[in-house]
Design brief:
- The protein is built from 14 helices and 9 strands.
- By secondary structure, it is of the alpha/beta class.
- It folds into 3 domains: 29-195, Rossmann fold, CATH 3.40.50; 201-268, Helicase, Ruva Protein, domain 3 (Orthogonal Bundle); 278-342, Arc Repressor Mutant, subunit A, CATH 1.10.10.
- A 5-stranded parallel beta sheet has the order 2-3-6-1-7, with helices on one face. It has a two-stranded antiparallel sheet with strand order 4-5. The chain has a two-stranded antiparallel ribbon with strand order 8-9.
- Strand 2 (98-102), helix 4 and strand 3 (124-128) form a beta-alpha-beta unit.
- Helix 7 packs across helix 8 (221-229), helix 7 packs across helix 9 and helix 11 (278-290) crosses helix 12 (298-305).
- The chain is globular.
- It starts with 28 loop residues before the first helix and ends in a 21-residue tail after the last helix.
- Mean pLDDT is 83; it is low at 1-17 and 352-363.
- It catalyses: ATP + H2O = ADP + phosphate + H(+).
- Keywords: ATP-binding, Cytoplasm, DNA damage, DNA recombination, DNA repair, DNA-binding, Helicase, Hydrolase, Nucleotide-binding.
- Pfam families: AAA_lid_4, RuvB_N, WHD_RuvB.
């Protein structure tokens, strides 16, 4: 798996796929199968997330000193930033086994009860996309986290009986890309909450150099910087781009990744200098050329690029908004001056900064 991969080998989670995007945040089978050796094994190897690492180190050291299990941990942030990796590091630091599952895989309280009842003392349970767990299972988890017991209901109707089941102390590590969807009673039961931030280019360069060393890829400093600059602040994407650049360097050059080789390779894979791919540029191009920069409704924009509304909203828009290329307004989506500049286009005279154009393309 990717060293910063946060996928679990259960029901696929995350935003809709968009044609296997090389800059997509979700992990695919190749990521999970090829990159297992790239995972950091302890907090000292983990690159980036300095504040979360420091806080988590204190939590784990204190737990080891007490001779008990670590507090339950909630990790939030975008896909690909290292939530699964940190859960495995927590288990390694505590000398405990880890069990991995996901919220969508737990649709009934009985599913959760079966997992909890098979845990051993001190085991780490990693629950990815915890906000997508069913409500009955979520309510069972409250008691399990707080009192280390669950009530298993046997039978139905008036004859149903609740049998209390004691659980060994364990550590739950929950991961979510949408922390706001977690109900307060569940969120409050976590002893430590860490938010994973996007990586700075310098941190991604360190990720690329480390991965290149483990993959035995020759890479120049400028080559690593080129890959890092197109990785959208996400280590998983940086490692994915490194593998594709490695392939190009082996076939088209002498196997060494320089800035020129990296740029040529990523141009082949349609990832531009700011990390935008085909879908991102299609959304911007439609917004600028067909709708004069907007405002335009999301459904209309999705039809223009031939994608589902959810794909545009959840896959393309977050990065475009974060890069300051697109803005969401009450009247629709609008392009910023940076979007016109990035695509080398001149805004029409009627375009008003901030999306104040007359007229609206509804949808």
């Amino acid at each position: 798996m990717n060293p910063y991969d946060e996928s679990a080998p259960a029901t696929p989670t995350g935003p809709p796929a968009a044609g296997g995007r090389i800059v997509g945040g979700a992990a695919d089978g190749e990521d999970q199968a090829v990159e297992a050796a790239l995972r950091p094994k302890d907090l000292g190897e983990f690159v980036g997330q300095e504040r979360v690492r420091e806080q988590l180190d204190l939590v784990l050291r204190a737990a080891r000193a007490r001779g008990g299990v670590a507090d339950h941990v909630l990790l939030s942030g975008a896909p690909g930033l290292g939530k699964t990796t940190l859960s495995m590091i927590i288990a390694a630091e505590m000398g405990a086994p880890i069990r991995i599952t996901s919220g969508p895989a737990i649709q009934h309280a009985g599913d959760l009860a079966a997992i909890l009842s098979s845990l051993t003392e001190g085991e780490v349970l990693f629950l990815d996309e915890i906000h997508r767990m069913s409500r009955p299972a979520e309510e069972m988890l409250y008691m399990a986290m707080e009192d280390f017991r669950v009530d298993v209901v046997v039978g139905k109707g008036p004859g149903a009986t609740a049998i209390p089941l004691e659980l060994p102390p364990f550590t739950l590590v929950g991961a979510t890309t949408r922390a706001g969807l977690l109900p307060p009673p569940l969120r409050d039961r976590f002893g430590f909450t860490g938010h994973m931030e996007f990586y700075a280019p310098a941190e991604l360069e360190r990720v690329v150099h480390r991965s290149a060393r483990l993959l035995d890829v020759g890479i120049a400093g400028e080559g690593a910087a080129e890959i890092a600059g197109r990785s959208r602040g996400t280590p998983r994407i940086a490692n994915r781009l490194l593998r594709r650049v490695r392939d190009y360097a082996q076939v088209k050059a002498d196997g060494v990744v320089t800035r020129e080789i990296a740029a040529q390779a990523l141009d082949v894979y349609e990832v531009d200098g700011r990390g935008l791919d085909r879908l991102d540029r299609a959304v911007l191009t439609a917004l600028l050329k067909l709708f004069a920069g907007g405002p335009v409704g999301l459904s209309t924009l999705a039809v223009a690029v031939g994608e589902e509304r959810e794909t545009v909203e959840e896959v393309a828009e977050p990065f475009l908004v974060r890069e300051g290329l697109l803005a969401r307004t009450p009247r629709g989506r609008v392009a910023t001056p940076a979007a016109w500049q990035h695509l080398g286009l001149v805004p029409p005279p009627q375009a008003v900064p901030g999306g104040g154009r007359q007229g609206l393309f509804e949808g």
